[in-house]
Amino acid sequence: MLVLVAPGQGAQTPGFLTPWLELPGLSDRLAAWSEIVGLDLIAYGTTAGADEIRDTAVAQPLLVAAALASAEALGATPDVLAGHSVGELAAAALAGVLTPEQALTLVRERGQAMAKAAAITETGMTAVLGGVEAEVLAAIDRHGLTPANINGAGQIVAGGTLEQLAAFKDDAPARARLIPLSVAGAFHTAHMAPAVEHLRAAAATIVPADPRVKLLSNADGQVVTAGAELLQRLIGQVSNPVRWDSCMATMADLGVTRMIELLPGGTLTGLAKRGLKGVETVALKTPDDLDAARELIK
């Protein structure tokens, strides 16, 4: 059983789109999508620096467009689809719930709204690697933080104010390593509530279709069969934790044996190697990886 997964914010690196522009039609596709999101996706994916593509309003459309473009180049029909955080919009489009144009319109609004919400209060995120999960979650709660990403494989990301994160650092859970993340704010926490309302208004006229394949939700890892429910989950996801651990648990229950991570791949296949033992993985980083991905599909 094959799952295609789309990565979330933070997976982007300077110039990651450059080799992909050599594929026939891909440059034209990105140019058309640039008109939808109001950004020069080709420039941001090829010549822009790390700080430029770290901007939430840029990173999110860039990542969704990259995932969709690489999926088109791959041409695979998966059994299961899932996306991490903003990657869920790409997964929804690939499952047929949204058109690519609808997904890109929503991600434009999502990125801009989350950037504005992040500017209201000085917030941030810290990755916690290792430790005993119950103790890590207890420490996060003790400091008023939110476990914004529970990624499995011993990785949890805490989000909250900079003061809360500083106190958390001084009271780190035993046997855990804390890594401050270079992000604009505390995504997937209550600090993103203003962005939820904006996204709900932006999605008001969209009539989603039901998924064509099994589509997993970040909210609880469950298979969502109704497009209308999935759209509401996508909206609420902005201020609620990402349960990638639950997504991987469902993949295991469904009998997933192969995983291909769409561009820019590496993060989710890395988690799968630790959390989904025995599952074969390929991460799409350059077009050279397409051959290995197609072999995996066979």
Structural class by helix and strand composition = alpha/beta
CATH class of the largest domain: Alpha Beta
**Overall pLDDT confidence:** 96
Residue share in helix: 40-55%
Which homologous superfamily in CATH is the superfamily of the largest domain? Answer: Malonyl-Coenzyme A Acyl Carrier Protein, domain 2
The appropriate CATH architecture of the largest domain is: 3-Layer(aba) Sandwich
Strand adjacency order, main sheet:
7-2-1-8-9
- Strand tally is 9
Quick summary of this structure?
Helix content is 46%, strand content 15%. It contains 13 helices and nine strands.
Give a structural overview:
The strands form two sheets. Strands 7-2-1-8-9 form a five-stranded parallel sheet, sandwiched between helices. It has a four-stranded antiparallel sheet with strand order 4-5-3-6. The model has no long low-confidence stretch (mean pLDDT 96). The radius of gyration is 18 Å and the shape is globular. The protein has 13 helices and nine strands. By secondary structure, the chain is an alpha/beta fold.
Question: What keywords describe this structure?
Answer:
298 residues, alpha/beta, Malonyl-Coenzyme A Acyl Carrier Protein, domain 2, Alpha-Beta Plaits, 5-stranded parallel sheet, 4-stranded antiparallel sheet, 46% helix
